[in-house]
Amino acid sequence: MLFISNDYKIPSSWLQLSLHAKTTALTANQLIAIVSLFLSLGFILAFAGVEFVSSLREPSKDPNLIKLASHKGPSFGWKVFCAISSVFTVLYAFYSGYQGSIRFSQSSTWPDYLGLLCGLGSVAVAQVALVVYQFFRREWNNNDSVRVQLQEWRYPKTFIADVIHHLSNPGAFILMLPYLCFTWMFRLMPDSYYNYDIPVNWGTVFMQLLVVDFFTFIFHVAEHAFPIVYQLGHKPHHRYVNPQLFNAFDGSLTDTVLLILFPLYATANVIHANNWDYIAFGTVYSTHFMLIHSEYDHLFDPLLKFLFVNVCEDHHVHHATFNSNFSHFFTIFDRIAGTYRDGSTCKGFRSMSVKVE
């Protein structure tokens, strides 16, 4: 409302006023909204702090860490490369944000919020479609013959409970929505993203997916390469060695920042797409991210695998073996680094049992 409502929105020139002038220029509703905003941010930081302290108190021994000795992972050179690249990516993201803040300070108006709402709406529609799709796969066609892993497993929660848990996940939705709104409304995105006049260029969308997958790969390898980073950020997500679709965003706030937000923002500044490209990319990215966590194979998986796109079996290999298949969208970077592993080589995977037969 502070950004888009004609009655309550704050003009961007307000930021140039002194602190006393800022306060006196606000209405009661605007003051309440700002206080609520900072309280929300405080709760997020408090949640992250509790999460951090809790992770320190947990025993450092983790079943997945033991698997390092039995599964070939990235070479030492790749670990160093990914760690250094991750640091430079973080610095680049902060520098890009600083450049965006300069653009905002030089603007006299807030950006049009139509693109933001269209993007959020597109992702929301895709989420609804995924929930319906999962309902039919899980409740009406629960066939163990199409499960990725052979391990006997039953859902600990009802379908509705899983949906509610997914939608209330703090690691994704508490961070993703503010990130999208903040970067858009404060013009932290390149100017091209606010262009509505050019239709979707699928070549640009492909480049966005390729670049974000590279950033995801280097951050993911870096998280696994250093036990302290893994324990403080990525470990909560790896408690799922046999994940299901609704586990996709079930991790920690730290993990969401490192593995999702930094790659997304760096990609936005590397690839200067237009508004509709951004919407198409965001919808495909979030949908695919959930699909690769699915406990069931998809009919379109063979085609995607042929196109070097990650399928759910590929990501299950990562959860089960810990040290393979770090990319999320393509298998290209894992193949280059020598960290790609097919499910047909993993004990306990249905594709291996079919191959043996």
Features:
single chain, 357 residues, mainly alpha, 2 domains, 15 helices, globular
Question: What would your notes on this structure say?
Answer:
The chain has two domains: 57 residues, no CATH class; 295 residues, no CATH class. Helix 4 packs across helix 10. With 357 residues, it is mainly alpha-helical. Helix content is 61%, strand content 0%. The protein is built from 15 helices and no strands.
Tell me the layout of helices and strands.
Layout (H helix, E strand, L loop, with lengths): L18 H7 L2 H30 L5 H4 L9 H30 L8 H27 L18 H9 L5 H13 L16 H24 L1 H8 L18 H18 L4 H17 L9 H6 L5 H10 L10 H6 L12 H7 L1
Helix pairs in contact: 4-8, 4-10, 5-11, 8-9, 8-10, 8-11
- Determine the mean pLDDT: 83
Rg from alpha-carbon coordinates = 22 Å
Q: Approximately how much helix is present in the residues?
A: 55-70%
Largest sheet: none
Number of domains: 2
**Distance between the amino and carboxyl termini:** 60 Å
Number of strands: 0
Structural class: mainly alpha
List SSEs in N-to-C order: HHHHHHHHHHHHHHH
Uncertain spans, ≥5 residues at pLDDT below 50?
A: 55-70
Report a brief summary of the structure:
By secondary structure, the protein is mainly alpha-helical. The chain has 15 helices and no strands.
